[in-house]
């Protein structure tokens, strides 16, 4: 059973969208992951297929209804891998079923997405992603379904769909066999908590700008040292927050608490 994403949205035609291209697209065609998108509106029960209503307490905008969202979540979990379904009461499953997919609500008030979260999600069986519209969703469905709330950064999107695409892209590239040796994440940014060093290719001199000579020297150890120093300089200059974290981690590695 490969990694599976179910996306609940009012705009199901937005998926897989850009994830049907390039690295993620090839992996999708190769069966390394799969995706389905469910139209939340198809779970409305009234003649007008209403998915939202006015907020109790008053105020601007509309709130997505908990009953409609709960039905959509139930359908996603039922349609997904068998492991998403509850075991029959008291019945032992065999072999032991893997964990059910986490259900994530994409919202600017959620926990900020970072590479550690991405690694955890990619290591699991997949995701159920709820994309909200309007001013938000009824709080009770978040509680009842134990939704994890995730944000992709401190700015406001008009809906969760672009955030879902971002989260899925970040996960899919980490799945086994998706990245080739060339783009393998072993050396990449954030694997060691540092931003990437600068890259150069031909021509060695371009518009009077020379490539740093050490990169033409053929001394692999010196090249590695230069790249490490540049990664550290750039991180220190641009992201003091990441730099402080990196320094703290390095200190811990040198002085284990044993
Ligand atoms: Cl996850 N959703 C929306 N609507 N806006 C956001 C976001 C998510 N993350 C940052 N801004």
Please, could you describe this protein's structure?
The structure is a single chain. The chain is an alpha/beta fold and 258 residues long. It has 2 domains: 3-86 and 94-172, Alpha/beta knot (3-Layer(aba) Sandwich); 189-254, Orthogonal Bundle (Trp Operon Repressor, Chain A). It has helices at residues 22-29, 66-79, 115-123, 139-145, 161-172, 220-238, 240-254, and strands at residues 3-9, 33-39, 52-53, 63-64, 103-112, 126-131, 136-137, 148-151, 205-206, 209-210. Strands 2-1-6-5-8 form a 5-stranded parallel β-sheet, with helices on both faces. The protein has a 3-stranded mixed β-sheet with strand order 3-4-7. Helix 2 (66-79) runs parallel beside helix 4 and helix 3 packs across helix 5 (161-172). The model has no long low-confidence stretch (mean pLDDT 92).
> In terms of structural class, how would the helical and strand content be classed?
alpha/beta
The unique ligands bound to this protein are: 6-chloroguanine
Radius of gyration: 23 Å
Fill in the CATH topology of the largest domain.
Answer: Alpha/beta knot
Q: How many H/I helical runs?
A: 7
Main-sheet strand order equals: 2-1-6-5-8
What number of domains?
Answer: 2
Q: Specify the overall morphology.
A: elongated
Summarize the main sheet: 5 strands, parallel
Termini distance? 41 Å
Looking at the overall shape, the CATH architecture of the largest domain is 3-Layer(aba) Sandwich
Question: What average pLDDT do the residues reach?
Answer: 92
Could you spell the SSE succession in H and E letters?
A: EHEEEHEHEEHEHEEHH
DSSP strand content: 15-25%
CATH homologous superfamily classification of the largest domain: SPOUT methyltransferase, trefoil knot domain
- Helix percent band: 25-40%
Number of DSSP strands? 10
